[in-house]
Design a protein that fits this description.
Layout lengths: L4 E11 L4 E7 L10 E8 L2 E8 L9 E6 L7 H5 L6 E5 L16 E7 L4 H7 L3 H5 L2 E8 L8 H5 L4 E6 L12 H6 L2 H6 L8 E7 L1 H12 L14 E5 L2
Parallel strand pairs: 7-8, 7-10, 8-9, 10-11
Antiparallel strand pairs: 1-2, 1-6, 2-5, 3-4, 3-6
The structure holds flavin-adenine dinucleotide and NADP nicotinamide-adenine-dinucleotide phosphate.
Length: 242
């Protein structure tokens, strides 16, 4: 299938740290559901190099927004980080993905659990009406290496989400230490969120580092949860970033 590419224009490239950036792009109208991703691309050495990026903006916003980390050895992300207002960015015309609330069954508590830039799809979901209409509690969990990488805090605090952060490589007041799976296993995560994490009450959406997805899924299975599939409903929905 040949790709249909839209040519967007960068309006802003915000740098949160030396490694983290958020691109805003105009002029590439695409229809999608919050939680989905789209391939974005640059022409590098005569070839179009494309990678999946989750929408940060909710579907109703005309400006697209993407949240990225520089993988120094990667072909695309270091170049995306250098884009400036006025530069062109190609956006594929076919958003996709199943990390969406339309794929999630009803529950009392929705857990949105991310490492690193895996936060992106949840920022879109939090700015739609569905989570607030459908779930009594919404918990956003964000794990990063350093406290300076806790991006989008202001936006998150403007929502009604319970917000739990992990900082793994330095001491950070107000954040949990260590990793998400261990805190699921020993009860620290639900204690910090103030709501139970149980199959009777919860659906968990996980996004980011594939090893975190595996380890967290194992910890949730040990608590009686199971992977969600359309034909066999469960409690765990995942999206791996690599
Ligand atoms: C469905 C989906 C959605 C995605 N959404 C986003 C997003 O919103 N923001 C984003 O930054 N990336 C996202 N990614 C990853 C993205 O597609 C690229 O892989 C990433 O931007 C690096 O591109 P690259 O060409 O520089 O390196 P690549 O050759 O693509 O990656 C090289 C290596 O970098 C590491 N890596 C890749 N992505 C990340 C990451 N996000 N965080 C930490 N390490 C990583 C992995 O070890 C990977 O093998 C998503 C991937 C998928 C599959
Ligand atoms: N973040 C940086 O300081 C930095 C700097 C330069 C370049 N980069 C590039 O960015 C990429 C890494 O980005 P990132 O820091 O956003 O992602 P990351 O390595 O996935 O780390 C994000 C968070 O996920 C945690 N994590 C990792 N594996 C886990 C597992 N199995 N279970 C549970 N939690 C787990 C990490 O904890 P741990 O700390 O315990 O691993 C950290 O808290 C690399 O390619 C690197 O080259 C990052």
């Amino acid at each position: 299938m040949s790709d249909k590419w839209l040519t967007g224009t960068v309006t802003e490239n915000r740098h949160w740290t030396d490694n983290l950036f958020s691109l805003r792009v105009k002029g590439a109208p695409v229809a999608f559901e919050a939680g989905q991703f789209v391939r974005i691309a640059l022409d590098i050495g005569g070839e179009r190099v494309a990678r999946a990026f989750s929408f940060v903006n909710p579907p109703q916003d005309a400006l697209l927004e993407f949240y990225g980390v520089i993988v120094p050895e990667g072909p695309l992300s270091p170049r995306l980080a250098k884009l400036e207002p006025g530069d062109a960015l190609y956006v594929a015309g076919n958003p996709a993905g199943f990390l969406t609330l339309s794929e999630v069954p009803d529950a009392e508590t929705l857990w949105l659990v991310a490492t690193g830039t895996g936060l992106a799809p949840f920022l879109a979901i939090l700015r739609t009406e569905a989570p607030w209409r459908r779930f009594r509690n919404v918990v956003l969990v964000h794990a990063v290496r350093h406290a300076s990488e806790l991006a989008y805090q202001e936006l998150i605090r403007q929502t009604r989400a319970r917000y739990v952060t992990f900082v793994s490589r330095e001491a950070a007041p107000g954040s949990l230490a260590g990793r998400i799976p261990a805190a699921i296993a020993d009860g620290r995560l639900e204690q910090a969120a103030g709501v139970p994490l149980a199959p009777e009450t919860s659906h968990v959406m996980l996004c980011g580092n594939p090893q975190m997805l595996k380890d967290a899924t194992a910890a949730l299975i040990a608590r009686g949860m199971r992977k969600h599939r359309r034909r066999t409903p469960g409690h765990i929905t995942v999206e791996s970033f690599w």
